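Renewal narrative, Specific Aim 1. Our central claim is that a sequence can be written position by position from structural information alone. The example that follows is taken directly from our test logs and has not been curated for this report. It begins with the structure tokens describing the chain, in the order in which they were read.
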């Protein structure tokens, strides 16, 4: 099978690379709290006139991330390849292979981590598939401009990976027709920065499991009705959150797919977490593996035949995952395809974290800096990878859930008793 990119893809690559080379350095400087680079006098230019402006103080990291999202959106780099059946929303047209090209170049440039990927890669395809024209016109342009950020209100306490165990309720107000959402979501990525949350809530009294659920778009800026509490992780970071809804208001026109149809919409959303998004993830994995190989060469650990074999295994497995993702790119998603992909990359990434600390040896038990009261939790890249990847086989649906899906929906084995 030929995995090469065509001439049109390579022209697109040149445009993407040129744009990133022009814009990434200033964005990274902002995020690092450094002054933005100032224009330098051109050869032969006079030096009279007003002095150069003082360095611009860096904003808080969240502000800098938002500025980067707006910069991407202003030049049409958000929402590449969105279905244009219902119109355009300020984004560039792009084939599937061009979307892969953009992801590769974005990773090559070391561009900032995205805050808008949940809206761009999860909600937007869902609105294109299940929303109406008014909903698409309201929400897709701000996502494409990088102006509105989203989080996902799925997981709940005591439900684990059982998405059908939703207890959050949304009650329709008979007066104004709005929904009042009450309940708790957990492990909500980037909720502390999000403007909106798409929420799976129970809207039918007495309903159970996947029946009676609805998919609602809820604004986060509702003091006293929406509370976000960050969850401190093993890594010391807190990008995951608990979100408490206490009568939060969702407008009736922000119900996606119809009342009681939330399970269908939610499953459609989960099905898009493959294809191009899988390839984007694998590009990041390849960069992590490259850093670990360099570490092994630098420390001499590559001389150990066991560690060397492990590195080769990781490389070969990542190549196989990439080729499989390319092979299935653009195909209709079968019921087990996302589960197979999740099982493959979750275990692979976890093993990579374990390999990283094995290569570090005894030094992996020490932090890169002396801990102080002001900075009590310093980790290097290998330690952070090891600790974070412990969750890879749990979040997004645990390995056990994925195996059940494959067994029941693909292999048609008898369903597990859930009495």
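The sequence written for that structure reads:
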């Amino acid at each position: 099978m030929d995995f090469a990119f065509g001439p049109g893809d390579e022209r697109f690559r040149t445009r993407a690379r040129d744009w990133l080379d022009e814009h990434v350095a200033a964005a990274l400087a902002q995020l690092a709290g450094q002054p933005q680079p100032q224009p330098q006098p051109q050869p032969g230019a006079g030096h009279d006139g007003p002095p150069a402006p003082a360095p611009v103080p860096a904003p808080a990291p969240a502000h800098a991330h938002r500025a980067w999202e707006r910069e991407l959106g202003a030049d049409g780099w958000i929402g590449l390849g969105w279905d244009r059946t219902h119109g355009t929303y300020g984004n560039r047209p792009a084939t599937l292979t061009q979307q892969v090209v953009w992801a590769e170049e974005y990773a090559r440039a070391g561009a900032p981590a995205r805050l808008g990927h949940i809206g761009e890669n999860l909600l937007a395809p869902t609105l294109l598939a299940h929303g109406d024209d008014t909903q698409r016109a309201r929400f897709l342009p701000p996502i494409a401009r990088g102006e509105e950020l989203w989080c996902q209100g799925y997981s709940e306490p005591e439900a684990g990976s059982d998405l059908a165990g939703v207890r959050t309720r949304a009650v329709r107000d008979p007066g104004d027709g709005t929904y009042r959402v009450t309940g708790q979501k957990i492990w909500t990525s980037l909720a502390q920065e999000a403007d909106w949350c798409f929420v799976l809530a129970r809207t039918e009294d007495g309903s159970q499991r996947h029946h009676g659920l609805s998919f609602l778009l809820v604004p986060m800026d509702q003091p006293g009705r929406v509370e976000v509490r960050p969850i401190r992780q093993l890594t010391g970071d807190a990008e995951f959150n608990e979100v408490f809804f206490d009568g939060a208001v969702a407008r009736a026109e922000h119900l996606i797919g119809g009342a009681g149809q939330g399970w269908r919409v939610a499953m459609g959303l989960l099905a898009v977490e493959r294809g191009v998004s899988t390839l984007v993830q694998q590009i990041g994995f390849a960069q992590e593996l490259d850093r670990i190989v360099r570490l092994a060469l630098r420390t001499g650990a590559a001389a150990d035949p066991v560690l060397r074999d492990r590195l080769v295994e990781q490389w070969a497995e990542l190549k196989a995952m990439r080729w499989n993702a390319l092979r299935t790119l653009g195909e209709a998603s079968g019921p087990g395809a996302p589960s197979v992909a999740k099982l493959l990359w979750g275990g692979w990434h976890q093993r990579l974290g374990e390999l990283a600390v094995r290569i570090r040896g005894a030094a992996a038990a020490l932090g890169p800096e002396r801990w102080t009261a002001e900075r009590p939790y310093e980790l290097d890249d290998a330690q952070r990878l090891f600790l974070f990847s412990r969750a890879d086989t749990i979040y997004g649906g645990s390995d056990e859930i994925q195996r059940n899906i494959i067994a029941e929906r693909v292999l048609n084995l008898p369903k597990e008793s859930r009495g």
